[in-house]
Amino acid sequence: MKTINIHEAKTHLSKLVEAAAKGEAFVIAKSGRPMVKVTMLEGQLQKRLGFLAGKGTVPVDFDEMSADEIAQMFAGTEA
Length: 79
Prior knowledge:
YefM-like fold
C-alpha cells in the first residue's frame, strides 16, 4: 500500500481520491508517521447501470406510440 505525505496528499487530492475510488487504498503520513488510511466505501460507489433490469417491459411499438397525435400537434391541427 502506498504511503503519501500530507503535503503531497493536499497537492494531488483529486487524483488520489479517484485512485481510492477505483480500489487503490493509500496511507497519509505526517512527518513520516502514518496517520490515516484512505479506501473506497464498499457498496456506496457502485455503478447503477441496469438497476431496474427485469422490473418492467417496453412495448414493441414504443417508437410509434402516439405518433399520429404528435404529428397533429406539430402541424397545429390537434382536436
